[in-house]
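User: Run a structure prediction on this.
Assistant: Running it now.
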Amino acid sequence: MQTNNVLDFRRLGYYFQYHMLASWKSYLLGALSIFGLLMLIPAFMLLTDNAPRELSEVVGVYYFGLFFGGLLFTSMAFSDLANKEKGSQFLMLPASQFEKFLTIFLVTTVGYLLVYHIAAYSALLFLNRVSLIRHEVSLLIDWEFLDWKDGHIYIYFAYIFFHAVFLLGAVSFGRLAFIKTLVTILLCLVCLYLLNTLFVWILFGRNTPTPFQNAPFILVGTHGGKFKTDVFVISEKMVHSYAFIAQYVLAPVLWTIAYFRLKDKEI
């Protein structure tokens, strides 16, 4: 019986064990750093007598740690490829490129989110103790920032999207992937904005007074109308299409591109 050269779960398990044994020191140091930084915030609040009364007052710290820590960690996922010797060893390991990619994918998504939320919950318990010491009342645990109806849940869709972007950057750049990916994102945004401005000029000409001040691919303001301004907004169907693509299409597409970029490294 011919073996599967793309995905074999037994071989995947062996490679996952090998990867964790080879990288456990780095991962342990990273996990301790996350715990330490998140615990440092309640400790600082205790020392400065500035303990919050509601969970929503410190949710910004949670989001910052989620994005900055997660994307920085993801950008270092394929750092071995920047070194010729380590890169060759990585590519020649007896596992398929898909199994290697899947292992890194699981570590940077499920693994990081699990460790980060355990650390965040531990920090929350410590923060609640700080509130009891300073205010003699428990911290008000309001989970409004997780409310789907208010749109806060879309922050996690944004995280998934940026994870895909930085994973692609990690495969493509290797060395200094975090900084190079940030610069690439900025350049892409500038190019899209200039492309939108070009379309505005072509479609509306001089009727739009400030083509650079329109919402790219969403809204255009022109001369005319009762209030000397007409506003053209994309249709509701297009809004839903944008939302669907942003939530469910972009990240899988970028993950797929990242996988094939890794596969190209074999050549």
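Residues 9-48 form the longest helix (40 residues).
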